[in-house]
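hiii so um. not sure if this is the right channel but i have a protein structure encoded as tokens and i wanna go backwards to a sequence. like what aa goes where. can anyone help
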């Protein structure tokens, strides 16, 4: 019996560790696609730009750690400039946004690594931890991190990007995205990346959530005016709904292309008294809170 239990524990731990690591985190492994190479486990824009003989993701050598690193460079094709993008999973070549990530069930505090960069339109790094919700048939955001590149780093520098946890459950997927430019790419903006690791220094998810609270809904109970406050990044659309305890929708509002600190006020003075649910959803936010209207 002890041997069986040991095997079960060993299998669980090995599964947890394998699912909690970043694939090809040092960009040591590349696969030749003929005229170009891609880092294993990562999607880039190279497939789309191959017909023009232009590649925004290339292998640099030597790496800050190891033999190689990832070079992302925004480049001009005709009258357009293609952003240098790498996604740990799949990318939509038309929208240039991530489609899928890799299996992941860890609870890291932050993403760490080394980089160099210089751009006139600052690039960015983002991390999304999510889990498929079998009831709503959509992915719930468990944690999110986003950082815009500031200034420049002309030699290898260390970075750490903290994750903001929104839900206290284990994720099943992770997407990491690097962009060498922002919304207005400039020719030859670049971002070099190497030695990616997750920092697991926080004891548990409740400790992490206490450090990062992205959405506040107050007062609760509420009489006349409800305030929804949040910090939003990356120009996203946010949908706010208030649903009665009977399941009926009594309020719906879509905030288009929001960014930065957002304070949305809702007049609740005409709503019938009772219990309601405030649902906030976007690409990076999935929150449902119970409120009482008095």
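sure thing!! here u go:
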């Amino acid at each position: 019996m002890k041997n069986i239990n040991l095997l079960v524990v060993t299998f669980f731990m090995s599964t947890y560790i394998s699912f909690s690591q970043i694939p090809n985190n040092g960009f040591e492994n590349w696969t030749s696609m003929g005229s170009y190479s891609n880092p294993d486990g990562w999607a880039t824009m190279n497939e789309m730009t191959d017909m023009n003989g232009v590649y925004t993701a290339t292998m640099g050598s030597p790496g800050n750690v190891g033999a190689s690193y990832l070079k992302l460079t925004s480049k001009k094709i005709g009258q357009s400039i293609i952003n240098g993008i790498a996604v740990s999973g799949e990318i939509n070549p038309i929208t240039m946004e991530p489609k899928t990530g890799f299996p992941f069930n860890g609870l890291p505090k932050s993403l760490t690594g080394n980089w160099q960069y210089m751009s006139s339109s600052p690039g960015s790094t983002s991390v999304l931890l999510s889990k498929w919700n079998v009831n709503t048939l959509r992915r719930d955001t468990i944690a999110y991190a986003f950082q815009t590149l500031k200034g420049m780093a002309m030699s290898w520098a260390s970075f750490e990007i903290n994750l903001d946890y929104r839900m206290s459950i284990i994720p099943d997927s992770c997407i990491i995205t690097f962009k060498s430019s922002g919304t207005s790419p400039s020719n030859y903006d670049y971002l070099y990346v190497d030695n990616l690791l997750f920092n697991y220094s926080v004891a548990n998810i409740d400790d992490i959530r206490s450090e990062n609270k992205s959405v506040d809904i107050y007062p609760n109970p509420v009489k006349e005016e409800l305030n929804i406050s949040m910090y939003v990044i990356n120009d996203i659309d946010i949908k706010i709904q208030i649903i009665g305890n009977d399941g009926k929708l009594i309020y719906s509002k879509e905030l288009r292309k929001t960014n930065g600190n957002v304070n949305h006020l809702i007049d609740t003075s005409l709503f019938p008294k009772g219990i309601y649910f405030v649902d906030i959803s976007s690409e990076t936010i999935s929150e449902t809170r119970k409120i009482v209207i008095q």
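oh and Helices lie at 2-19, 46-49, 205-211.
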